[in-house]
Amino acid sequence: MAGDGTIVLALEGQLRLDDQPALHQAVEQARRTPGGRLLMLAGRPQAQRLRGPHQRRLEAQALASMRTRLAAAHVPLLHTPQHTTAAALASLRSELAPTAVLACTESRLFADWPIPPERFPRVFADFRRGLERQPEAPLPPPDLAGLEPPQPMGAAAGGDPRSAFPFSGDEPTALARLQHYVFGSDGLRTYKDTRNGLVGTEFSSKFSPFLAIGSLSVRRIWQELLRYQELRGADEGSEWMKQELLWREFFLWSEQQHGPAFHAPGGIQNRPPDWKEDRERFARWTRGDGGHPLIDAQLNELRATGYLSNRGRQWVASHFVNELRLPWTWGARFFEWMLIDAHPAVNTGNWAYLAGVGSDPRSFGGSPRRFDLERQVGLYDPEQTHCRRWS
Fold this sequence. Notes:
Serine Threonine Protein Phosphatase 5, Tetratricopeptide repeat; DNA Cyclobutane Dipyrimidine Photolyase, subunit A, domain 3; Rossmann fold; 3 domains; mainly alpha
């Protein structure tokens, strides 16, 4: 059956116009199609597992901004949060017969395997050394002018002021934050020294929530880092930031490489479980009542804002595994629900690493990493600023 000229682009959790290859293809196809119209469809991505209240708030902000920007080009955005793309299209079948359906893909530095899957490494150092090419360059937003106006369709069925991430989740805010952090402040230059801070907006980039909901492209970040290094020279901060982006990439491809084993209790090492399934202790932990003031403060911040610093996440996971001796998968699932920047592969990769079942080279045949929390407090919160704020 011939289509009605509508080209549907399924966003699949990528809530931006910048660096969207599928969007360029959809616009080009709409221009070639007689009476071509473009419809954006924001359904529930097939691979999405959990999305808690903090991340849903950012998603709503990103969608509202995107809808407004698209409306100026007469491109409608249909949001069907309870349905996958296939289910949404099935429910619209009586009023929409699209000529074509295209789908966006997750933002990655590499569009295809950066190292062949048959020899993809289990540890990050080997991944970084084994990269065979540079990341691809990002695409600019396409020109949406001149598309046909949409046909009428039927209706489809703020945060804590103490937060270290007080930003809106929309694409313009994400791009502004990128420019501010890289070029408008000393944040990138000092990143290696400040990244383990606990309080405030400037101790780290805060790019991860934008990446998690798809309002910022990782390839755009990488390009701006290269531009920074061309203008100001490579320094420790910019090199460390590139390494952090490569860690994200490593976990994304590792999940694809290992499949279900990546999220399994034994992890990629297939280690036997060594924990106690104490549900009462776990429930107290989720309420910030686990018995250690540093960890309880981290959990209070997480529940109130959805944000937790890099160092705080390591403390919490290490304490959960080594002191509470609870199943690491429970902690990982709770983080995936609560974190404002949760991504299943990155979240699981980090938890498995600290649980001693993932890609930490020290844990192959050894024990999980363990933090001396009293020493950590002296190093990173000597004035008890964070603990007082979140007690």
